[in-house]
């Protein structure tokens, strides 16, 4: 996290405001504008935590705020500690603490051992713009609360940001869901993470999700999530990346396309390559289609690159998919409330049956991709190479980036898809 102080703006400020509110230091509007009220709340937090009371969120203050960024804290067990007493002290729940520490016997807690204590709020925020550090906080927090999730990385972005992977469940039915190939479609990232959080919570408390028992889903399926394929682009669009050589180069690229809003209209990775036009499935046709529209060099959108898989983000997705060999994939984009399920004649017979189920549970419509956009996408490559069901789901309606206020409706519409996709193959 960058240093934040009065006058700072962007999604990191919104997360800081949310964290201060979570920690009990006032009700703050998560508007991403660091003003006097945010500074005052921060000073109160700093004073209570033995930090320099300067109203500046630097390294030490961010470290102290980590529990309220990630949704859990680490407590070193002392004489007399029990899960019940820890739950009372931190506002947690005994079942939540037990689930986060499955290796511990509650009646025999070892003094000096660190335990994970989940804090009493959802990890995944649904009221703030996204950025790459927030993806990391959510992944770390979810894997701490639900250690039956497995977390790792599939690679790094152009700017060295981790490309996070979460695997939910241990069943033989391997499926892969990805989000945010396109920078200004970042609202799809919290969609996948919120699904992971609700699935984990439902499993712990023996609940249903999407009409199915969470524990049975995790036993039957192995759901791999890549929640943010394009972290650098997300940071650019939402205002977390505000300066430096990469920002200046992106602005230079955008200046050649004045009709595309900067940075809001940016879909590409930070080098100006459209990651969803990078896959070896009719790439040459995609190059021809986009060149006819003028996209022959790095641009905010629609430049296919100089060859397939030149970008580290698309290469990482390609390699992970080949390693995993999933039975089904979902690629989340925005907007339009449609589901694309074909590429040329590669869709397997069951793909149509499955998309009809998705239509029923979401209210979205199955559609065919327009010719000009119908090549070199992730879905296209998966259908071509694996001959298994692969879908692109376009969530919401409006102009990208969609406002976060649409999130709740998007989540409700897609919960059935996210659940069924793990069960139908």
Helix-strand layout with pairing:
Elements lengths: L10 H12 L13 H13 L10 H12 L1 E5 L6 H8 L3 H7 L13 E5 L13 H14 L3 E8 L5 E7 L4 E7 L8 H17 L3 E2 L2 E2 H7 E6 L4 H8 L6 H11 L27 H10 L19 H13 L3 E7 L3 E3 L8 H14 L2 E3 L10 H9 L3 E6 L11 H14 L5
Parallel strand pairs: 5-8, 5-9, 9-12, 10-11
Antiparallel strand pairs: 1-2, 3-4, 4-8, 6-7, 10-12
Question: What structural keywords apply?
Answer:
425 residues; alpha/beta; eight-stranded mixed β-sheet; two-stranded antiparallel sheet; globular
Please outline what is shown here.
The chain is α/β, with parallel strands linked by helices and 425 residues long.
Structure, described:
It contains 15 helices and 12 strands. The strands form 3 sheets. It has an 8-stranded mixed beta sheet with strand order 3-4-8-5-9-12-10-11, sandwiched between helices. A two-stranded antiparallel ribbon has the order 1-2. A two-stranded antiparallel sheet has the order 6-7. With 425 residues, it is of the alpha/beta class. Helix content is 40%, strand content 14%. The two termini are 41 Å apart. It has helices spanning 11-22, 36-48, 59-70, 83-90, 94-100, 132-145, 188-204, 214-220, 231-238, 245-255, 283-292, 312-324, 349-362, 378-386, 407-420, and strands spanning 72-76, 114-118, 149-156, 162-168, 173-179, 208-209, 212-213, 221-226, 328-334, 338-340, 365-367, 390-395. The mean pLDDT is 97. The chain is globular.
């Amino acid at each position: 996290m960058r240093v934040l102080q009065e006058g700072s703006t962007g999604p990191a400020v919104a997360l800081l405001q949310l964290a201060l509110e979570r920690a009990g230091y006032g009700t703050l509007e998560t508007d991403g504008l660091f003003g006097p009220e945010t500074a005052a709340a921060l000073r109160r937090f700093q004073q209570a935590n033995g930090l320099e009371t300067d109203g500046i969120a630097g390294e030490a203050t961010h470290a102290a705020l980590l529990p309220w960024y990630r949704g859990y804290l680490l407590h070193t067990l002392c004489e007399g500690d029990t899960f019940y007493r820890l739950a009372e002290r931190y506002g947690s729940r005994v079942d939540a603490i037990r689930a986060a520490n499955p290796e511990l016997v509650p009646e025999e807690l070892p003094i000096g051992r660190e335990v994970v204590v989940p804090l009493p709020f959802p990890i995944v925020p649904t009221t703030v713009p996204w950025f790459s550090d927030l993806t990391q906080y959510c992944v770390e927090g979810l894997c701490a609360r639900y250690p039956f999730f497995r977390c790792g990385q599939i690679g790094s972005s152009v700017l060295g940001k981790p490309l996070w992977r979460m695997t939910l469940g241990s069943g033989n039915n391997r499926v892969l869901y990805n989000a945010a190939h396109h920078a200004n479609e970042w609202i799809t990232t919290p969609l996948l993470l919120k699904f992971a959080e609700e699935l984990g919570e439902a499993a712990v408390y023996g609940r249903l999700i999407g009409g199915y028992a969470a524990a049975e889903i995790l036993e039957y399926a192995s759901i791999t999530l890549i929640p943010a394929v394009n972290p650098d682009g997300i940071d650019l669009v939402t205002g977390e990346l505000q300066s430096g050589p990469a920002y200046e180069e992106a602005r230079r690229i955008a200046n050649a396309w004045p009709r595309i809003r900067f940075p809001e209209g940016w879909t590409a990775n930070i080098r100006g390559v459209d990651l969803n036009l990078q896959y070896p499935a009719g790439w040459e046709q995609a190059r021809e289609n986009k060149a006819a529209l003028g996209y022959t060099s790095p641009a905010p959108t629609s430049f296919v690159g100089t060859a397939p898989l030149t970008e580290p983000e698309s290469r990482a997705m390609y390699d992970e998919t080949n390693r995993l060999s999933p039975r089904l994939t979902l690629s989340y984009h925005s907007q339009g409330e449609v589901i694309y399920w074909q590429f040329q004649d590669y869709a397997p017979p069951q793909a149509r049956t499955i998309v009809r189920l998705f239509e029923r549970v979401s209210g979205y419509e199955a559609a065919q991709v327009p010719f000009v956009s119908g090549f070199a996408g992730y879905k296209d490559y998966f259908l071509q190479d694996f001959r298994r069901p692969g879908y692109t789901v376009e969530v919401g309606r409006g102009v990208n980036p969609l406002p976060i206020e649409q999130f709740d409706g998007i989540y409700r519409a897609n919960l059935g898809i996210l659940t069924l996709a793990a069960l139908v193959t």
